[in-house]
Amino acid sequence: VPPGYAELGARSNFSLLDGASHPAELVAEARALGHAGIGICDTNSLAGVVRGHVAARELGLPFVVGARLLLANGAEYLAWPTDRASYGRLTTLLSRGRMRAPKGECAITRAELTEHAAGWCLALMPPLRPSPDFAGRLQQDAAELRPQLALPLFCGAWCRLDGQDQPRLDRLAGMAETAGAELLAAGDVRYHHRDRRRLADVLTAIRLGRTVETLGRAAERNGERALRSPARMARLFARHPAALANTLRVLEAGSGFSLAELRHEYPDEILEPGRTPQETLTDRVWAVARERWPGGVPENIQRRIHHELGLIAQLGYAAYFLTVHEIVRFARHRGILCQGRGSAANSTCCYVLGITAVDPSKHDLLFERFVSANRREPPDIDVDFEHERREEVLSALASDGPGLARRGWS
Amino acid sequence: VARRILALWLPQLPTDRLRRLEPALRGVPLATWGSCGNRRLLLAADGPALFAGQALADAQAICPGLVLRPADPQAEAELLERLALWCLRWTPLAAVDGTDGLLLEITGCAELFGGEAALLQQACAGLRRAGFAVRAALAGTAEAAAALARVSDGLIVPPGEDLAAVRPLPLATLRLPPDVVSGLSRLGLQTVGDALRQPRGPLARRFGQGLLNALDGVSGMRSRPVRPVREPAGFLVLRDLLEPIFTRPAIEHVLEHLLVALCQQLLDVGRGARRLTLRAWRVDGAVQELAIGTGAAARELAHLRRLFAEPLGTLEPDLGFERFSLEASRTEPLEGVQAVIRGEGEAGAAASGLAALIDRLSQRLEVHRLQPLDSHWPEYAAAPVAPFETIAVPAGWGGEPRPPRLLAQPIPLAVTALAPDGPPAQLRYGGRSHRVLWAVGPERLEPEWWGADAGRPARDYYRVQTAEGPRLWICRLLEPGMDGAPRWFLHGELA
After folding, report:
1. In the beta sheet, which residues pair with residue B472?
2. Contact, B211 vs B204, CB < 8 A?
3. A200 neighbourhood in chain B, CB within 8 Å
4. What is the pLDDT, as a whole number, of residue B347?
5. Under an 8 A CB cutoff, do A223 and B401 touch?
6. In chain A, what residues touch B464 (CB-CB under 8 Å)?
7. What's chain B's average pLDDT?
8. Beta bridge partners of B6
9. A360 Cβ contact partners less than 8 Å away, ≥ 6 residues apart
10. Distance separating alpha carbons of residues A26 and A11, to the nearest angstrom
11. Which residues of chain A are within 8 Å of residue B494 when distances are taken between CB atoms?
C-alpha cells in the first residue's frame, strides 16, 4: 500500500516567471499520481487557487487553499487557512502587503504575519543550506506562533536530488525537534511534469534577463521540481515517515475551508436599520410603484412585482438589487446619465426602481430570462454611465464603498 | 611646389566588404544595420529606395528580398586601413579619411605613373577590380578633394583653382553635423560659396568652430596634415653565409647573431615576441623552417636561445645551409621594467621566471590552465585555456563536492544497489570488490537541453566511501543498458 501523501505547496504559473504549469495541470497530475489531495501556494498571491479549486472539484480531489509568503527579511512560509475567518486574515495580509509595495511586489513583515496567523497551518520553508539562523527563526516562530496556529508549526523539507538531500533532511529533522516543530514533506514544485523543466528554464532566463545558454547554474540542474508519486516521496523520506503523514494532517485541517464557502458580501450600509434586505427591497419597490402610479398600481404590474420579489427572496438576491439601486441613485443625484440595459430590462422591479427604462408590461418579457432558480449566480445588471463621468462613479465606489447614500448625498 | 591630393571615396564600403566575403551576395540587395538606442537602422545599403538611416522595418517592407547583416565597424575600419596600405604603391603618404574615404598625397609622384589622370585611373580601376565602388577627385587640399569626390567622379582641379571648384558645392559635402547643415539651409546658405561670403564671427558663434575649420580646410586657408598609414613593422633578420655550414656549433653561432639582432629590434620598439620562425636555406635550395611560441611576450636572449635548443636538432643540414632568416611573426607590446637593486623585485622576477618555465615545458608537452565555467554538467564545468589567460571564476562556483580530476573516459562498474533508485552497496573496481561504507546522494544531473548533448541520459551521482579506502564519485545512468540492468560508471576519485 503506498503511503498517503499530498503535495500542498505547488507553485502554479500564477507565481509569475517562476511556476511553469497551469493550476489545472497540477491538479490533474496529482490526481493521476495518486496524491491524497493538492494545495497550490503561489508566491504572495492567491491568484492560482481559483482555477485549482475548480479543477479539483471536477476531478473530486481534495484541495487546500494556500499561499507562499515571502517576507521582506527573506524568510519563506507556506500558509494554509483552515476556516473562512483565517482565509480572510490571509487575504487581508496579502492585500496590505501588495498595496504598500510597488506594482508586482509585496512587502510583508514578520510582525504582520504574526498578527494575521490565527487559525492557519504554517510551515517555515528551509533555505538550500539550513543555517543556524534558520534554526533560530524556527525556534522563535514555533514558540511565538503556537497559540494561534491550527496545528503546530511545521518545518518544510524537500528533496531536490542535489546530492545533499539526506544530510539536509537529517539536519532539518534535528532543528525541528529542538524547536518543537514537526517536519512536513513537500516537493518544492515548479511544474507538474519533468518535461516542463525547459519552460521553467526559459522563465528563469526571462526573469534574469539573460539567454538560456548563459544561464549556467541558474538553470535547473534536473527535472526534479515536478510532482512525484507518493511511493517515490516515501523512498526519499524513508527515514522521516512522519513528514509524509503530516501532509495528510494539513490536508485535513486545510479542508476546513473551501472557496465554495465564499459568497458575495454586500455592505451593511444599504440596509435600513433593523430590517432584512428583502424587507427593505419590498418596501422600497412598493413605495416607488405607488408614486409612479398615483391612481393605483395596475393589476398586471402588481402581479409581476409579487412574482419577482418572491423569486428574489427565494434566491436571496435582495442585497444585490439594493446595491445596484444605490449606485444608480448616487449617479442620478450627481446628474450623471446612466441607464440599465440588457436582460435586466426584463425585470419590472428594475423598471420600477428606475434602473431600466423599458416598461416590461408593455413588452411582456419573461423575468426568468433574467433571474432563474437554475442559475447559481446573481444576475447581471448592466448599467451604462456617461463615459466622461464614469470615473466619478468608480472613484466614489472605491473610496466610500456602496454606502453612498449615507455619506454622499442623502 | 603646390600640394596635390587624391581623394578616393568608397560609398559602399560595408556592403562591398560583405560581397567580397560572400560571393553569393552579388546581385542581391544588401544592407548592414545597427542599433541606435532601441531603434534598428540601416547603416549602409545598396538597393533601390534604400538609404542609410532608414528604419529596418521600413526597409524590409520596401524591399522584401533585402539581405541584412549586422554592421561591423571595426572590420570596416580594418579593411579601410588595409586599402590605404595597398595605396602605398603610388605614394609614401596614404591616409584613412573618416570611415569611408582614402587620401593620397601624390605631390611629385604622378609623373612616375604617367601623369595625374593616369594615376587616378589606375587607382580607381584597381579598387573596382577588387569589387569596391569608388569615386575620386584630385585637388590641392585634402578637404577640397574629399568634398569634390562626393559630388563628381574623376575630376582633376588644376593647381590654384581649388576655391573656384569648391564654391558651388553643397554644404552637405563638407561632412558637417546634420543640424548644422539644416541650420545653414534655413539661413539660405546652400553652397560652400554662400558660407564663405558670410562674416566669420557670427557663423562661429552660431555654429561653432567646427564649421569654420571645415570651411578653412576646403577653401585652402588652412591645410590639415594628413596622417599617413604605416606598414606594420616586420621583425626579420637575415644572414648570408660565405661558406655553407652544417655543424651544430656553427648553426648555434649564427642563431645567436640573429637573436641578438632581432632582440635589439624588438627592444627598440618596445615589443616582445610571441612566435619566432627560423628559416634555413640549404645549398640545394630546400628551405627548412622551425617555429617556437612563447606564453608571454619575450625578448630575453637566453630564454629564446633555450627554446630553440630542442628544435634545432631537427634541422637536416645535409650539404650545409648558406642562409638563415629569423622572423618574429607575432609580437605584442612589452614595456621594459625597471630592475630593482635587490629585494622588492622578487615578485616580478618570479612571474617572468614562471613564464619562462612554462615556455620551456610547452616545447615538450601541452600546458594549459583551467577556466571554471558556469554549468551543472560536470564535463562543462571547466575548460582548458592558454597558460596566461586571465581566469574569471563564476560566483558560487565550486560549491558542490567534485573530484579534483574527472576521468576522460569514465570506467564502467559493476554495482550492487537496491532497485530501483537505491544507493550503491557494493561495487567492483580495479579487479577487486569494494564494500560501500557510506554513500551520499543522489545528485541528479540532466544534460543542458539547449546544448549538443541534450539527448544524453541523466545521471545520478553518489559520493562513495569504500571499506578498502578509495573515495569515489560514481554515477548511474537513468537509462538502463541493453539488458535492462542499470549502468554504473566511475567518473573520478574524490580527494
Report:
1. B464, B493
2. yes
3. none
4. 53
5. no
6. none
7. 86
8. B104, B138
9. A304, A345, A346, A347, A348, A351, A367
10. 9
11. none
- The residue behind cell 543522489 is B442
Ramachandran class of A231: left when φ > 0, alpha when ψ lies in -120 to 50, beta otherwise: alpha
Q: What is the pLDDT of residue A333?
A: 86
How many C-beta atoms surround the C-beta of residue A167 within 10 A? 12
CB-based contact B441 A163, cutoff 8 Å: yes
C-alpha closest to that of B69 among B39, B91, B108, B43: B43
| A166 inside 8 A of chain B by CB | yes
Q: Nearest-CA distance from A200 to chain B in Å?
A: 12
CB-CB neighbors (< 8 A) of A169 in chain B: none
- The cell for A66 is 494556500
Rounded to 5°, angle at Cα B351 from B345 and B353: 95
- In this complex, do B446 and A197 lie within 8 Å of one another by their Cβ atoms? yes
Please state the rounded mean pLDDT for residues B2-18: 89
Other CB atoms within 10 Å distance of the CB of residue A125: 22
pLDDT band at B349 (very low <50, low <70, confident <90, very high): low
The residue length of chain B stands at 495
B444/A219 touch (CB, cutoff 8 Å), yes or no: no
Residue B331's H or E segment, with its range, is: strand B321-333
pLDDT at A42: 95
Alpha helices in A209-336 (DSSP H): 230-236, 241-254, 277-292, 299-315, 318-334
Q: Which residue, among A54, A62, A60, has the nearest Cα to A22 in the 3D structure?
A: A54
Q: Do B444 and A221 touch (CB under 8 A)?
A: yes
Please report the pLDDT score of residue A405 as a whole number: 43
- Determine contact, residues A94/A49, Cβ cutoff 8 Å: no
Instruction: Enumerate the residues of chain A whose CB falls inside 8 A of the CB of residue B463.
Output: 163
For residue B342, pLDDT over 80 is answered with: no
d(CA A163, nearest CA chain B) in Å: 4
Chain A residues touching residue B400 (CB < 8 angstroms): 162-163
Q: What residues in chain B have their Cβ under 8 A from chain A's Cβ atoms?
A: 373-376, 394, 396-397, 400-401, 421, 440-446, 448-451, 458, 460-461, 463
Instruction: Give A410's pLDDT tier (boundaries 50, 70, 90).
Output: very low
Between residues A330 and B344, which one has the greater pLDDT?
A330
The answer to whether B450 contacts A213, with C-beta atoms less than 8 Å apart, is yes
The larger pLDDT score, comparing residue A369 to residue B373, is at B373
> What percent of chain A lies above the pLDDT cut of 90?
56
Query: What is the average per-residue pLDDT within B175-185?
Result: 87
pLDDT at B392: 86
Among candidates A162, A217, A222 on the partner chain, residue whose Cβ is nearest the Cβ of B446: A222
- Helix B209-219 with B178-186: angle, nearest 10 deg: 80
Q: What is the ipTM of this complex?
A: 0.77
Q: Is the pLDDT of residue B8 over 90?
A: yes
**DSSP-assigned states of every residue in B435-494:** EEEEEEEEEEE---TTSTTTTSPPEEEEEEEETTS-EEEEEEESS--TTSPPPEEEEEE-
Chains A, B: CB pairs < 8 Å:
54
pLDDT in tens, B301-341: 888 888 888 888 888 888 889 889 998 888 888 877 666 66
CA distances from A194 to A198, A236, B13, B365 (A): 9, 17, 52, 45
**Rg value, chain A, Cα:** 27
**How much is the pLDDT for A406?**
43
Contacts A210 to B, Cβ<8 Å: none
DSSP assignment of A215-237: -GGGS-SSS-SS---HHHHHHHT
Map residue B238 onto helix, strand or coil. Answer: strand
Instruction: Kindly indicate the confidence band of residue A408, based on its pLDDT and cuts at 50, 70 and 90.
Output: very low
